[in-house]
Amino acid sequence: MLSIFTLGSTLLLPLLVEAAGYANLNSMGLFRRTSCSASLPASCHNTTVETDLCCFEAPGGSILQTQFWDTNPATGPTNSWTIHGLWPDHCDNSYSEDCDPSRDYSSITDLLENAGATSTLSYMQTYWKNDPNDGSDEELWEHEWATHGTCYSTLEPSCISGYSTGEEAVYFFERVVGLFQTLDTYQFLKSQGITPSSSKTHTQSSLLSALKAASGYTPAISCSGSDLDEISWYFNLQGSLIDGTFLQYNAPSGSSDCPSSGIKYLPKNNDNDV
Ligand SMILES: *[C@@H]1O[C@H](CO)[C@@H](O)[C@H](O)[C@H]1NC(C)=O
C-alpha cells in the first residue's frame, strides 16, 4: 500500500509543478540540469579568460555562505545559527551588489510556492530569519536576492533555456538552503565543547581552530562588540550555481572581525540585556 502512495506522489508532483510553468523544477528541489562541462576550472582558479559565464561564475567567484547568531532579540532555533545569505564576492574580496534591479522580485514566497518549492520555503521560515527590528523574513529574502542573488553570472536568464520569470531565484534559494544544511555551525562548535554561555569567554583563535577541527576549513567570524554574531564559510564554484559543485576553502587570514580575546558566544534565551 505504501508503495502505491509513494509512486502516486512521485508522479503527481512533477506534473503539478509543470502545470505551474516550471517544467524543469520539481517540488523536491533542483531538477534542471545545465550542460556545463565538468572540466571547466573552478571560479577564481582560471588561468585564461573564461568566456562562457553561464558555466563559470564571474566576477563573483568567491562565494560566502553567511550565517547569523542573533541573541538580542533571538531569532530561529536556540540550537542553530540562521541563514544570512550566499554572497558572490570577487576573487580579490571586492564585491558587486544590486546587479539587476529589473529582477528585484516582490514576493520570494510566491515564487517558491508557484514553483512547488514548499519544503525549501518552510525550511526558510525556520532558519532564514530577519531581525524583527529590521523587518519581516520575506523582506530579508527579497533583500538577499536583489542585493546578491542578481549578481550571479551563472543565474542570468539568458543562461536558462525556456526561462520562466523568477525561476533563477528559486534555484538560488534552493542552493542556499542545501549548502547551509551542510554547515551546522552550532554542531561544529558543540562537537569541540563550545556551547553558548552568558559568562564564558573565548579567543578568536580558539574559535577558529575549533571550527576548523570540526569542519575541515577555517571560516571568518564577526562580532558585535565582543559578542560573536556572524560567520562566513568560503567556497569556489565549479560550474553553474544551478547545479555546480561548491569547493570549500579556508577564509583568507585577517578576514575575521572579532576582538582577539574576551569573545562571548551568548545563549539565545532572550535574556542577554546587560
Ligand atoms: C578568469 O575569467 C574571468 C572571466 O572571464 C576574467 O575576468 C579573468 O581575468 C580570468 N582570469 C585570468 C587569470 O585569466
TrEMBL record:
Protein name (Swiss-Prot/TrEMBL): ribonuclease T2
Keywords: Disulfide bond, Glycoprotein, Hydrolase, Lyase, Nuclease, Signal
Top-level enzyme category: lyase
A single GO molecular function term of this UniProt record: hydrolase activity
Source species of the chain: Femsjonia peziziformis
Short name of any one Pfam family annotated for the protein: Ribonuclease_T2
GO biological process annotation, one example: RNA catabolic process
CC terms in the record's Gene Ontology section: extracellular region
Active-site residues per Swiss-Prot or TrEMBL entry: 84, 144, 148
Domain of life: Eukaryota
Annotated signal peptide: 1-19
EC assignment: 4.6.1.19
Family: Belongs to the RNase T2 family.
InterPro entries assigned: Ribonuclease_T2_eukaryotic, RNase_T2-like, RNase_T2-like_sf, RNase_T2_His_AS_1, RNase_T2_His_AS_2
Signal in keyword set: yes
PANTHER family (UniProt xref): RIBONUCLEASE T2
CDD domains recorded: RNase_T2_euk
Region annotation (Disordered) ranges: 255-274
